[in-house]
Amino acid sequence: MIIAHGIDLVDCPRIEDMINRHNERFINRVFTPAEQAYADANKNRIEKYAGRFAAKEAILKLVGTGWRGKIAWTDIEVVNNISGQPQVRLDGELKNIADKLGITQISISITHTANFAIASAVALTSAKDEA
After folding, report:
1. 112 assigned to active site
2. 117 lies in a domain?
3. Is 86 part of any domain?
4. Which terminus of the chain is more solvent-facing, meaning fewer CB atoms within 10 Å of its CB: N or C?
5. Domain holding 85: CATH number?
6. Could you confirm whether 48 is annotated as catalytic?
7. Is the residue at 29 inside a domain?
């Protein structure tokens, strides 16, 4: 059962500027080692980083918190399964919040061009018996 939705649009040149200005500090604060390895292995690495950034923002919107308190950007990890579909792993404070909300899975979709990346995230929960 769907319980929440979040969506975000990111300007790829903005992410490129953040990486150029803050380099490793920005990358390490926002992206997990697995996300960094994925983006850096692609020729369109800025688009890959922007897509992951958009996904993280969409997920923060669906849990209704935004980025604040004890939530870290790396509490959200976006990795691809064997067929290339992006999957979400939550950790830390964000995992605790998602558990309290009854979120059992987050399904995401990411797309990008050289200029924009967009991500949509849907929070799912197990259907409860109403018998």
Report:
1. yes
2. yes
3. yes
4. C
5. 3.90.470.20
6. no
7. yes
The domain total for the chain is 1
State the Cα–Cα distance between residues 70 and 68, nearest whole angstrom.
6
Q: Which of 43, 56, 95, 112 is catalytic?
A: 112
User: Which entry of 61, 70, 95, 100 is annotated as an active-site residue?
Assistant: 61
Instruction: Find out whether 75 and 90 touch, Cβ atoms under 8 Å.
Output: yes
| Predicted confidence (pLDDT) per residue in 26-85, tens digit | 999 999 999 999 999 999 999 999 999 999 999 999 998 777 778 999 999 999 999 999
Per-residue pLDDT tens for 13-43? Answer: 999 999 999 989 999 999 999 999 999 999 9
Structure tokens at 43: 């020729």
The CA radius of gyration of the chain, in Å to the nearest whole number, is 15
Buried b (16+ CB within 10 A) or exposed e, 59-91: bbbbbebeeeeebebbbbbbeeeeeeebebebe
Q: What is the pLDDT of residues 114-127, one digit of tens each?
A: 999 999 999 999 86
Q: Is residue 108 part of a domain?
A: yes
Residue range(s) defining the domain that contains residue 59: 2-124
pTM above the 0.85 mark? yes
Confidence of residue 131 (pLDDT cuts 50, 70, 90): very low
